[in-house]
Fold this protein.
Amino acid sequence: MRIVVHDMASTVGATVNVGIRRLGRGRRPRNPVRYDVRVNETKNATRLGGPKAYAMWGMGLLGYLFAVVCRSSMSAAGIEAANHFHTTSTALSGFLYLQLFVYALMQVPAGVLLDRFGARALIASGGLLMAAGQSMMAVAPVAWMAVAGRGVVGLGDALVFISVVRLISAWFPARQAPLLTQLTSVTGGLGQIISLYPFAWLLRLTGWRAAFLVSAGTGVLVAAAILLSVRDDPRQSSRHHERPEGGLAAAVRGFGTALRSPGTICGFFVHFSTWFPINMMNQLWGLPFLLAVEGWSRETATAYLGMGVVINMVFGPVMGRLAGVHPIHGRAAVVYASVGAQIALWTVLFLTPGPHPMWFMVLLLVAMTSGGPASNIAMDYVRDTNRPEVLGAATGFANTGGFLSSTVIFLGFGVLLDAQGATDPSLYTDHAMRVAALIQYPLWAVGLVGFTLMLRPTLRLIRARRG
């Protein structure tokens, strides 16, 4: 006979074989009674990938959505900012250059802080910092104060995405992580739609100050919601983060460990080479470029850029699934295909006069948009080649890549415009915009060379870890 006793308050399991002597016979029974005492502590445990995991991820997504709204608000307000502050093209680039430079500069410290303090604290802090930056934008009387506000936005933005990636790693099985990372990026991309339509509408309706103050107030509410609901790890019994041993010094040493992993460097170059073209178009220069080169109306150009978000929603899950099922060759194929298509189509655009056929512009948008999901493959390389305790630092460093290349694009684009005499939006011409956009090619070259050199040792390490 087998008796199973379940104790839902513990996880220790024990089996006790008890031989019961028959009364008066002095020998063991043929079939001894077997008592199976199972101590199963699942009452307080949370299943990875369960409903609570999706709730944690959903709250992290809310924080990331707000971050993308703040990050891309200049895509709707760029021309208004030039007129509001009476700035040159280089000064207009400064709004995003400083924001993305601060973001890139903060990725490594943010990763170290993430390993030390956890995702909940960093997402909430990021929301509050972005709210402060949007408030500075709202009340700034001169351009340099508004640029400083964008820097504060970049500081807060830097804390959010890698923290959401850490939540995914903590709450979901490894096989689901690539897909959920892509879905995070896709859902966060809705922030671009919010900037292009609701925020732009609010900006025209209420004016500069009111629109940015509403954005700031939203950030405070998001930060409060994160603090009240998110737990960093399913093993924690409360929202309090259990800090790792060794303190901040150990976290800093962990960054050195992460840099020695080839997957960390490989991820950096993936992010560096794939993401900056669509970022250039979405964040600042897309609208002026389409108006000057293609001769489109503002409404058509806005709808075109908004369509990229929809395309991204298709690409993200497909690439996430491919990266999860084919981690060795599938990921590299996605990176090379995305960058190759972007280079080919931009080259055709530069060599042919505008306006171009709509079918061609849609192909260009598809190629550029593929760079967003392709950039997230960087996180897959990082996750598969680093220990969990240094994952924050490694992810932060890899995530620096695309923002570093984007800072070069934003500043370089504006400098090249000014060098041609196109110092304000009324002077943006077809020729000036084409020359400025050529700055993409050296960045592609650097990114592809770095990725190719680091790919082989990265794949070797992934194979070794997978056995």
In short: The chain has two domains: 2-39, 51-466. The chain has 18 helices and three strands.
